[in-house]
Design a protein that fits this description.
This protein has about 450 residues and is of the alpha/beta class. The chain is built from eight helices and 19 strands. The chain folds into two domains: about 280 residues, TIM Barrel; about 120 residues, Immunoglobulin-like (Sandwich), CATH 2.60.40.
Length: about 450
């Protein structure tokens, strides 16, 4: 638990003033086809209001995407201090020829002197998704990426998300750092820890480490489309627990990148459901995540400052999957996702409390009662302390979920999503999370 105002033990540092800690959100430009500049303006304002310092703009090969990049940079001018950088999606872009290198370099060059372009260690930040096999017509991956960077015409700080063994980072002197894309999710049926991060930090040997933080992962595409159908475990309040890991190890981390703002296809979005979905409506529509965005502000401030902020408003966050993990979907042409067994049939609650109280958890079958304990299957009570508190309760098939914060006989908050039911007979498989919140 993290109490309000708790101060971390910060290391002493006698060298030059380091770059500030920043929190970035990964933004999928490929999902912004209908965006106007005003839409980017709204996204930036919402991100800033919740402690996010910038967007990593993941862009691919579609001919319309460079125009969306330009719109985003134009919108950012109205938000001083909000930073942007390109994340070249090398699973989409070609990296096979010298012409490809020039095209990518020119895209970076277009925004290199923009007032909202992120620079770090005196270089324009460039990231990627993948790219560890991109030669750009050169004799090695290192030489290929060096050919890109040398054509930008200004210093570049290169922090890609490559899927390589971190012990081999020394083979790539072109790297200024690295982004550990898969470090944010548990890769098995266990909770996340800092071991993957530490391997990357050790492999980087003093270069910049960009750490991932993410709330969720589920994707459900058939072999005839994107051929992606699996989950990663998000139980036991992955998002706040991951943030707390990064905060306690912040001295080894340069940047924290949230995966993601709007990747609906992989169900880890924290922004509003908007733009153009990549045929993910079946598992995204009706599953808001913006409560996680609200939670971000608290942890982002702690990561950046080294001090957990005081909690001045009572808040509760709640989330759960929509059906039992072993339920059989009656009408889904896509099979149950891989790793389905690596999750629990429970709902999760995080309470930000200004003072002690009592939490009542239950799984009510109907939204017919206003009493905190009425209609609750297996109600459970727990003590709440000042600060951050986390809880879980097994779900009842056919019922909902409810959390009520009490102080004595005073009901402070009652979080009972009326549109959520733990459905034992789903028509399609959906391991996305329904997320909601309440605040005083």
């Amino acid at each position: 638990m993290c109490g309000g105002g708790y101060r971390l033990n910060l290391y002493s540092y006698n060298g030059p003033t380091p770059n500030p800690k920043l929190v970035i959100a990964h933004h999928i430009v490929g999902n912004t086809y209908p965006y106007q500049q005003s839409d980017w303006d709204k996204d930036i304002a919402l991100a800033q209001a919740n402690g996010i310092d910038g967007f990593a703009l993941n862009y691919g090969r579609d001919s319309w995407q460079p125009s969306r990049l330009a719109d985003c940079y134009a919108a950012a001018v109205g938000h001083p201090g909000f930073k942007l950088f390109l994340s070249a999606d090398m699973s989409s872009l070609s990296g096979s020829s010298g012409n490809d290198a020039t095209t990518l370099a020119n895209q970076v060059k277009q925004f290199a002197n923009h007032p909202n372009q992120l620079s770090y260690n005196d270089g324009v930040v460039l990231s990627t998704f993948s790219g560890e096999n991109s030669y750009f017509g050169q004799g090695s991956v290192n030489a290929g990426w060096q050919s890109v960077i040398s054509q930008v015409g200004t210093a570049v700080t290169f922090i890609p998300a490559w899927f390589v063994d971190p012990s081999t980072f020394g083979n790539y002197p072109v790297l200024n750092g690295a982004f550990n894309w898969n470090g944010g999710w548990p890769m098995s049926n266990s909770d996340t820890d800092f071991s993957s991060d530490q391997q990357w930090i050790n492999g980087l040997n003093g270069k910049l480490y960009m750490a991932p933080v993410t709330p969720n992962f589920f994707t459900h595409y058939s072999p005839q489309t994107y051929n992606k159908n699996w989950i990663y475990r998000n139980d036991d309040n992955l998002y706040p627990n991951r943030w707390e890991l990064l905060i306690s190890n912040r001295n080894q981390i340069a940047l924290a990148e949230i995966i993601s703002w709007n990747d609906y296809g992989e169900s880890h979005y924290i922004g509003p459901i908007e733009g153009a979905q990549p045929n993910s409506q079946a598992w995204v529509n009706g599953f808001p995540h913006t409560a996680w965005l609200d939670m971000t502000g608290y942890y982002a401030q702690a990561f950046k400052s080294g001090v957990y902020p005081s909690i001045t408003k009572d808040k509760m966050y709640i989330y759960a999957r929509p059906h039992p993990k072993d339920a059989q979907a009656c009408c889904d042409s896509v099979s149950r996702p891989s790793n389905w067994q690596n999750t629990d049939d429970a709902f999760y609650v995080v309470v930000f409390a200004t003072s002690p109280g009592t939490l009542i958890l239950g799984t009510p079958p109907t939204p017919s009662s206003t009493s905190p304990t009425a209609s609750a299957a297996n109600p459970s009570t727990a003590a709440v302390t000042s600060g951050v508190n986390k809880y879980k309760l097994a779900l009842t098939p056919g019922n909902g979920m409810r959390a009520t914060l009490m102080r004595g006989t005073n009901q402070v908050l009652d979080l009972w999503p009326q549109d959520y039911v733990f459905n034992p007979s789903p028509s399609v498989y959906n391991f996305n999370a329904y997320v909601n919140m309440a605040s005083t």
